[in-house]
Design brief:
With 373 residues, the chain is of the alpha/beta class. It has 15 helices and twelve strands. Strands 3-4-5-6 form a four-stranded parallel beta sheet, sandwiched between helices.
């Protein structure tokens, strides 16, 4: 969404939208219908979350499938670049080759992470093989590679089992929604709580937090234990996590799931948190870390390179298996006069988030370099 909006402002006369339709056909999309689709999607993200009636959602989807049906790609002798910032269809090299052939264009692609390959134990059963196909497509067709962090680029180029031929590459750290820096219109009702923002899956290390919360309930009781909000849908390979969420009596009421929270409510929730908790084992960038800091909210995060790139020296970092350190920090942050939290707030005063405009501008300048050869 950030790319669609920012590029429309930056290069309105040179930007064209295209897509592979659900029917499998590739083509150009009419600008007015794209703008209507973007407006509608932002409205859903901002206001509805999971509260939109299913009938309305399906009717809207059918309408967009018709209005956004692909149109023919016009011929041209001018240089073209297909910029793709998602992994969609990369596992199907014939699809990528087909659209590049029809556009007669160069290809710039973003790599978000190689976690399914570097950490296959956290992937879906077919995840490593699927991601390997994506990387092979990038190796075969990409004229330039964007990554969201130095950690991702180093992981990509450092794999002994993959040989990427030399080509231009650029690191462009993601931006942050400017609305996060603005005070929300209303607060969240709970006064003492923490937030974990991620899909519920083993890589995100929710088990660490759930065991810590169960120990705090045992020691402090439910009244003395802060609430932990888990913002994100349930993912895969997470049976142990789900068992604790559904069957552990001590966590009932103290740990609350919010699977599809609208953006406006998320900003309200985040603004009042004692801290964002991100104990992940591996990340490509660590977007929630940057988003929380942009909202003026302290962060306690796992000490991994991607989090360091996102948060710099501001957050408190702990090893993702250091349960004692995490528990002590969380208990300290609960206190109204927490020195550790106050120290981070002081560091946070000098931190400035990267804007999406700056991120997209960096990516656009890279595309121009690739096009110029």
């Amino acid at each position: 969404m950030a790319y669609a909006r920012a590029l429309a402002r930056m290069i309105p006369g040179r930007l064209h939208y295209a897509a592979v339709h659900p029917t499998g056909i590739y083509g150009r999309l009419p600008l007015p219908h794209v703008e209507a689709f973007l407006d509608r999607t932002e409205e859903r993200w901002e206001i509805f979350g999971d509260a939109e009636p299913i009938g309305r959602s399906r009717l809207t989807a059918l309408s967009h499938c018709w209005s956004l049906r692909p149109r023919p790609v016009p011929p041209t002798n001018a240089a073209r670049v297909v910029l793709q910032v998602s992994p969609h269809h990369l596992q199907h090299p014939a699809v990528v080759a087909g659209k590049l052939r029809r556009e007669r264009a160069q290809f710039v692609c973003m790599v978000h992470d190689i976690i399914p390959i570097s950490h296959p134990e956290y992937a879906r059963p077919n995840g490593p093989e699927r991601h390997s196909r994506r990387l092979r497509t990038i190796e075969n067709y990409a004229d330039g590679i964007l990554t969201n962090s130095h950690a991702t680029l180093e992981s990509l180029l450092g794999r002994a089992d993959m040989e990427f031929r030399p080509r231009p590459a650029r690191v462009a750290h993601f931006g942050v929604d400017a609305r996060l820096s603005q005070p929300p219109s209303q607060g969240w009702p709970d006064g003492n709580y923490f937030v974990c923002l991620s899909t519920i899956e083993p890589r995100k290390n929710h088990l660490l937090l759930l065991h810590i919360w169960r120990s705090m309930v045992d020691a402090l009781g439910t009244v003395g234990t802060p609430v932990l909000y888990l913002v994100g849908r349930r993912g895969w390979e997470n049976e142990n996590i789900v068992d604790l969420l559904e069957r552990c009596p001590g966590l009932q009421g103290c740990v609350r799931e919010l699977p599809r929270l609208p953006d406006n409510r998320l900003r309200q929730l985040l603004a009042g948190a004692r801290a964002l908790l991100m104990p992940s084992f591996a990340e490509g960038f660590g977007m929630p870390v940057a988003e929380a800091l942009a909202a003026g909210v302290p962060v306690i995060a796992s000490d991994i390179p991607a989090h360091r790139e996102a948060g710099g020296t501001v957050p408190d970092y702990f090893d993702p298996i250091d349960a004692v350190g995490w528990r002590q920090a969380i208990l300290d942050y609960c206190a109204p006069a927490s020195r550790r939290r106050a120290a981070q707030k002081m560091r946070l005063a000098g931190w400035r988030p990267k804007t999406w405009e700056a991120h997209v501008q960096s990516a656009l300048s890279f595309v121009e370099e690739v096009a110029a050869g």
